[in-house]
């Protein structure tokens, strides 16, 4: 394996070249990478089967994240193609003006440089990260979990070869091919060459990365997502949105974890919601007012309001008005995704203005807060930070900017 510092240095050198490569060339590379994956599909699936066999002690949610099905493989290929088809985010004029002196000033989107992606289990992150990084003109160092090492070797090797065929620098995509935790610690010390680190995984991973480096980190901690059923909510919509938000995939960060029901609508809506959730095998935990309506509901503790279950468990709380709902979200939410179910334009406006989360949804499932459903294509995660990028992180979010001024001899007076 190439020494970590040498890998980072090569990525920085490749970044200088990649910044000058046209958007058409980068898009062509992504298309070729999609084709390369199709050609090695059998190898990918065989490697993934070996990874699963070698990790019998993984939890079921982790195994689900690790496993590549035909559907997930198609998703990986399509995300590369979708990224290729997106408008080029590099070179966009974000702001511009001509000063009285005749100086033309523009604020232009440019790549960040070298991005290191550190993640667990999900092999689809390998392809998503490569797609987003290259589309935005960044080189990328990929460090997946040891449980997916065999799969990632095949994926990264195919994408790297395709990128080179398209004319991209050889080290535009690199895989840190090691299961040793020391390799990650060494990667975190490469502030001379790496411009941004994106950890994607559990809270312990993100905290370890953030505390172990001086390189800027784009963080995503908990996904404690809420839906507020307002007093005027449509019962059928409340049932369908709650079930989809919670049950479509319980193990993901934008799955619903706490349902807030307005006291004015709880008696007529909560029994319908509870019946639908129980059919899906969801365990319900509620406050005393909730349990008065739903006697079979288990008692919720204070800890439940601060828990990201990532499991078929849902906590339910009765609130008295939108202000109490927003206060609960402010206290217990993680700033990821929160929604309201209402037919009132005034209530929806108050909720949008009052809830400080990366995604706020009105009459829509929390599961929609992501790259594909927002029209961003592939993303490398959902940031709960407030600075630089917030929410789904796609190609445009992996750009920074620089000021360009063009004159004809102007001097400072």
Summarize the structure in short.
Helices cover about 40% and strands about 20% of the residues. By secondary structure, the chain is of the alpha/beta class.
From the structure above, extract its key features.
alpha/beta; Aldehyde Dehydrogenase, Chain A, domain 2; 7-stranded parallel beta sheet; 14 helices
Description:
With 413 residues, the chain is of the alpha/beta class. It has 2 domains: 4-218 and 393-406, Aldehyde Dehydrogenase, Chain A, domain 1 (3-Layer(aba) Sandwich); 225-368, Aldehyde Dehydrogenase, Chain A, domain 2, CATH 3.40.309. It is built from 14 helices and 16 strands. It has helices spanning 4-18, 23-39, 41-53, 60-66, 70-85, 124-135, 149-165, 181-187, 203-211, 235-247, 263-279, 288-293, 322-332, 345-354, and strands at residues 93-98, 104-111, 114-119, 139-143, 173-175, 196-200, 225-229, 256-262, 283-286, 298-299, 313-319, 337-341, 359-362, 382-383, 391-392, 399-406. Strands 10-9-11-8-7-12-13 form a 7-stranded parallel beta sheet, sandwiched between helices. Strands 5-4-3-6 form a 4-stranded parallel beta sheet, with helices on both faces. The termini are far apart.
